[in-house]
Amino acid sequence: MDAQTLMTGSVGGISVAALFGLAVVVYKVVNHRRCRSVCCDKRMEVSLDIDTTTPTGNTTPPKSNPLIKDGYQAS
């Protein structure tokens, strides 16, 4: 590898890390916030709540339905 390739790769890596860091900061600032605005006698309210998608507690799959066999519902 030559110096130009290494420099390009390092600049790209630093850019990705900076964007990720910026995204984390925006997430922390915006999460669980409510924005209210009144303009020309019109009221607007927006809230943003980002919840985790990782399952907590019970992670067992639901029991199978005995009426459904091989992907088709028995009639």
Topology of this structure?
Layout: H1 3-30, E1 33-39, E2 42-48, E3 68-69, E4 72-73
Antiparallel strand pairs: 1-2, 3-4
In short:
It contains one helix and four strands.
Explained architecture:
- This protein has 75 residues and is of the alpha+beta class.
- The protein has a domain at 1-49.
- Helices cover 37% and strands 24% of the residues.
- The protein is built from one helix and four strands, in the order αββββ.
- It has one helix at residues 3-30, and strands at residues 33-39, 42-48, 68-69, 72-73.
- The strands form two sheets. The chain has a two-stranded antiparallel ribbon. A two-stranded antiparallel ribbon has the order 3-4.
- The chain is flat.
Oligomer: single chain
Relative strand content: 15-25%
Question: How can the largest sheet be summarized?
Answer: 2 strands, antiparallel
Quote the average pLDDT: 76
Low-confidence stretches: none
Radius of gyration equals 25 Å
Shape type: flat
Can you count the helices? 1
Tally of strands: 4
Q: Helicity range of the residues?
A: 25-40%
Query: Strands across the major sheet, in which order?
Result: 1-2
Q: Structural class, from helix and strand content?
A: alpha+beta
What are the secondary-structure elements, in order, as H or E? Answer: HEEEE
First and last CA, distance: 66 Å
Main attributes?
24% strand; alpha+beta; two-stranded antiparallel sheet; 75 residues; two-stranded antiparallel ribbon
